[in-house]
Structure formats: structure tokens, C-alpha cells
TrEMBL record:
Residues 1-29 form the signal peptide. This is Ig-like domain (Group 3). It comes from Kroppenstedtia eburnea. Keywords: Membrane, Signal, Transmembrane, Transmembrane helix. It comes from the Bacteria. The lineage of its organism: Bacteria, Bacillati, Bacillota, Bacilli, Bacillales. The chain crosses the membrane at residues 506-526.
Length: 536
């Protein structure tokens, strides 16, 4: 009995000793990470959780990592819902990792962040023995995704769809009938709602009869009673549902009730427009004008009746107060002299007032005129100075890209050239730049949406010992002529300064750039000295 009691006591004594020894060993295991750890924050927003993790140090501040991150999202039952990994290297110069988990169901979640790899702290030398591998991990507090409030859903606006309308005028005495038919432009199979038919007498803009209201599906018809001969517009609206969704629509049809015989539908005219770019130059190669040429056509169904149209065409750019009228169905607006900015879209109001054959016609439309432009930028990443450029207000482009970098002393530092490129974006990397201020210019020479153009833009930046940053500036993109640009390159190589002819003051800068476009092979001038060089 005494032996049994003694043995039992020894067991409890051993357990007690272990409780005293384990915490120091735990602390020792934690100290094996040299005081490095992970700080993680997780925030819920709707059905998403945003996670930010950062490696921190108790004694030294981490500045770079080399290893693997992982962030795991745990569900309400501790099960893994989703995870993401990322590999980092010292040259990225980051100690953080962020990720967002989206489309989560309501409930409680927890985030586990882990980093396995080496840590470089302030003052550490590259490949220092201190940069041994660590395994760091931490779990966040519980995060709750709330159940969305569905008791009071916000009302949604009905979807707008078109309505096809046709009208037959049936003449009678003393009254006549406008027989109207309408159908929704939809593929929905279950449609129901309220139709409304209205007749408007064009001569005095009055309603000769009451509206006709009809309940129905995707088609409806109505007879509208009228008295006077002349032109009527039948306006049709619909308000209801299509396959369970709220919809609304409207459509109109113009019909003539003649003095004798039955009704006759008028010809429906439509105006369409397109644009291109005109380049006009002097004999010596200087640019006289670059203009956007807008062409309008009057259509009767599929027939182009513009050659038969006699009257006045008006082209107006309200934003710039520009207006041109004449007998021609086309007009040109100068980019160089009338203030149209590259990289900007203008609304051009086009109107025709005249006759097609013996019929009087008034037609108008708004056309969006897009002038191609360019946006450029600068980024520093891992010792590389990256100059980026993207053509704007363009859909397709193919041609050559040249990017040149200059220092403050108007000296060419480096240039990159790429030919036969399809697409709107381009980037060029420049390494081993000494600390200082630089200016880069990127030029595209090729075809943009079917037009041969040159577009370029500049960006200024400063390189520091351990990085770089763009400098403030608001230079506008410029548009030039590829033929003139090629001649300028030849002149520059021959030691001559080519002439330019740009009269509009706001385009003097671009005129200077056009004159020196060839320098994209030889160099570009730092802005202040560049402008002074050309007397701007």
C-alpha cells in the first residue's frame, strides 16, 4: 500500500516539474525567431474581409523579406475556407502582404497569417548569417460577416427597352383611323403590363383624341380616331414586367393622313457620321495644319441620299464655340489652330435643313469626335526605372514606340525603340541611372484606328539613392504627322534645324516638339532649357 502511495506521489511530482519547465522552453522557442513576429489586421466589409499582414521586430525594424507568405481564412467550424500564397524576394523591399476574401457567407471567420523565410533588418548586410530562415505565424481575432438586411430592399429602376411601332392611316368620313401596332424589343417569354397609345397632330401639337390604354403582353394594338388630314406622330409607352423584371419602354411613328385616298407612310431619314484626320504641310516639310475631318450622310433606310440632298449642313462644337455651315456634308476642325486637345472627346452637333428631291427634310444628330492622346507615367521597382505610356481614346494601334531619357544638361542618357507593336500600351526599363532629375518622352508612330499619326508625351522624374519618384507636371499630349517626323529625323541627322509652322499660341510647345521629334532617336531636351532653345 505504501509503495502504491509513493508511486502515485512521484507521478504528481513529475507532472508538477513539467509545468515548471515547459514555459521556459516555450519562451526559448519563441526567442528562436530573434524577436520577429507578424502583426495582422482583418476587417469585414459587407461580404468581404480585407487582411493586412506585416512582419515586425522587437529589437530591429524589418525592411525586406525573402520567402513565402500564406494567408488562410478559417470558417466558423475552424475549417479552411480559402487561402492565398505569395513569394517575395529581398529586392522587392517589402515586409507586408495584403489580400481580400470576397463573396463570403454570413458567420464568424478567423485569419491565420504565416511567413517562412529570411528577414533583413535595418543595418543588416546582404547575405548576413543573421538572415537565417524563420517560421512566423499568427491568428487574428474572430471576424463576423453580418447577415444582409433583406427586409427593406431598395427599389430598383425598371430596365428600359425599345418598342417597334407601325401605323396605318385609314381615311374615312367624317373621321379617320390611325391603326397602331407595337411590340417590345425583348426575348422575354412572360410579359405583362400597361400599354398607352397617344396621337399628336404635328401642325398644332395637339391631341385629337383621348389616349388608348391597353393591358397586354409583348404586343398590343389600338385604333386612334382623328379628323384632320396631315402629319401625325403616334407615341407608345409600356410599363410592366418581362420574365419577372420591371421594364419600361417607348417608341414613336410618324404617319401622314393625305387629303385623298388612304394613308401613306413617310420616308424615315437617319443621319450617320464618321471622322478621320487630315495632314496639310508646306513644301519645306513644315506642318500647316492637322485637322479632324467629319463626314455626315443622310440615309433613307439603306439608301444614301446625301447626293440628292440640297440645303444647309451645320457642324457645331458647343464646348469650343465652333460652328461651320455650308452646302457640303463634311467639315474639318483644326487640332492645331482651333483648340481641339489630343486625348479629349468632343460632341459635334450636326444638322441638315433642306430638301431631298421635292421633300423638305430637317435632320440632326450628335456625333462623338475622339482625338487620340497619350498618358505617360514613371515607376521605380527593384532598381529599374520604368517609363510607361498608353494611347487614349483609341481602340486599335500598330506601329513603333520610342522612349528616350535625358538629364538636366540636355544630354541623352539612353533610349529604347520597339517596332511592329500591336496594342495601346508600352513600357521601357532604364537601369543604372545616377541620382538626379530626368525627363523622358515616349512617341508612337503608326496607325491609330485607321489613321496614320504620331502621338507623344513627356514625363519628368527624379532618381534617388534608393528609389525614384515622378515629378509634378501637366504636359499635354501632342499629335503630329509621321511624314514630317521622318523628314525631321533626316534633318537632325544632317545637322540642320528643321522649320515648323504652328501659329496658335497654345500649340507652340507642340510645335517645338514637332521640330525636334527626330531627337527621340538622339535625345530630348530638359523642359526649361528645351523651351528656351526654341524661343517658347
Amino acid at each position: 500500500m505504501k509503495r502504491r502511495v509513493r508511486a502515485f506521489s512521484m507521478v504528481w511530482l513529475a507532472v508538477f516539474a513539467l509545468t515548471l519547465l515547459i514555459p521556459p522552453f516555450q519562451a526559448l522557442a519563441q526567442d528562436d525567431n530573434d524577436g520577429y513576429g507578424i502583426q495582422v489586421t482583418a476587417k469585414a466589409d459587407g461580404d468581404s474581409i480585407a487582411v493586412d499582414a506585416e512582419v515586425t521586430g522587437q529589437e530591429k525594424k524589418p525592411v525586406a523579406l525573402n520567402g513565402d507568405w500564406s494567408i488562410t481564412l478559417l470558417g466558423p467550424e475552424g475549417n479552411e475556407v480559402d487561402s492565398v500564397t505569395d513569394q517575395v524576394t529581398f529586392d522587392k523591399g517589402t515586409v507586408t502582404f495584403s489580400h481580400g476574401f470576397k463573396g463570403l457567407k454570413p458567420g464568424e471567420y478567423q485569419v491565420k497569417a504565416e511567413f517562412k523565410g529570411s528577414v533583413r533588418a535595418e543595418g543588416d548586410v546582404a547575405d548576413s548569417p543573421k538572415q537565417k530562415p524563420y517560421t512566423l505565424e499568427v491568428a487574428s481575432d474572430r471576424i463576423t460577416i453580418e447577415q444582409p438586411d433583406v427586409d427593406d430592399p431598395e427599389p430598383t429602376e425598371p430596365e428600359t427597352i425599345g418598342i417597334d411601332v407601325s401605323v396605318e392611316a385609314v381615311k374615312g368620313k367624317p373621321t379617320s383611323i390611325l391603326k397602331a401596332e407595337a411590340s417590345l424589343k425583348t426575348d422575354a417569354t412572360e410579359v405583362e403590363g400597361d400599354w398607352n397609345f397617344t396621337a399628336i397632330y404635328q401642325e398644332d401639337n395637339t391631341k385629337p383624341s383621348d389616349d388608348v390604354k391597353v393591358k397586354g403582353g409583348n404586343k398590343a394594338s389600338a385604333d386612334l380616331t382623328v379628323v384632320s388630314t396631315g402629319v401625325y406622330v403616334v407615341h407608345v409607352t409600356f410599363d410592366g414586367t418581362a420574365d419577372g423584371k420591371k421594364v419600361k419602354g417607348e417608341g414613336s411613328y410618324e404617319v401622314t393622313l393625305p387629303k385623298g385616298g388612304g394613308g401613306k407612310d413617310p420616308v424615315n431619314y437617319e443621319m450617320i457620321a464618321s471622322h478621320g484626320f487630315l495632314i496639310q504641310g508646306y513644301d519645306d516639310g513644315g506642318i500647316e495644319d492637322i485637322a479632324a475631318s467629319i463626314k455626315a450622310d443622310l440615309m433613307a433606310g439603306e439608301e444614301n441620299v446625301t447626293p440628292k440632298a440640297k440645303g444647309t449642313w451645320t457642324f457645331e462644337v458647343p464646348e469650343l464655340g465652333l460652328k461651320k455651315s455650308g452646302k457640303e456634308s463634311r467639315a474639318a476642325f483644326s487640332i492645331l489652330h482651333e483648340g481641339l486637345d489630343p486625348g479629349h472627346e468632343y460632341t459635334v452637333h450636326i444638322a441638315f435643313d433642306g430638301k431631298v428631291g421635292k421633300k423638305k427634310v430637317k435632320q440632326e444628330t450628335d456625333y462623338q469626335l475622339a482625338i487620340p492622346g497619350m498618358k505617360s507615367g514613371y515607376d521605380y521597382n527593384g532598381g529599374k526605372n520604368t517609363v510607361t505610356a498608353e494611347l487614349t481614346l483609341a481602340e486599335n494601334a500598330e506601329g513603333s514606340w520610342v522612349t528616350a531619357v535625358y538629364d538636366e544638361d540636355i544630354e541623352l542618357v539612353d533610349y529604347k525603340e520597339t517596332t511592329g507593336v500591336k496594342g495601346l500600351k508600352h513600357s521601357a526599363d532604364f537601369q543604372d541611372l545616377e541620382p538626379g532629375k530626368y525627363q523622358a518622352v515616349t512617341i508612337f508612330d503608326g496607325e491609330i484606328d485607321g489613321s496614320e499619326l504620331v502621338v507623344w508625351k513627356e514625363v519628368s522624374f527624379e532618381v534617388k539613392k534608393n528609389g525614384g519618384a515622378p515629378l509634378p507636371g501637366n504636359e499635354k499630349p501632342c499629335v503630329g504627322d509621321p511624314k514630317t517626323g521622318k523628314k525631321i529625323v533626316e534633318d537632325i541627322k544632317g545637322g540642320k534645324m528643321p522649320k515648323t509652322a504652328v501659329d496658335h499660341p497654345s500649340w507652340m510647345l507642340c510645335g517645338g516638339v514637332i521640330a525636334t521629334a527626330g531627337l527621340l532617336i538622339l535625345g530630348i531636351v530638359y523642359r526649361r532649357k528645351w523651351l528656351g532653345l526654341f524661343g517658347v
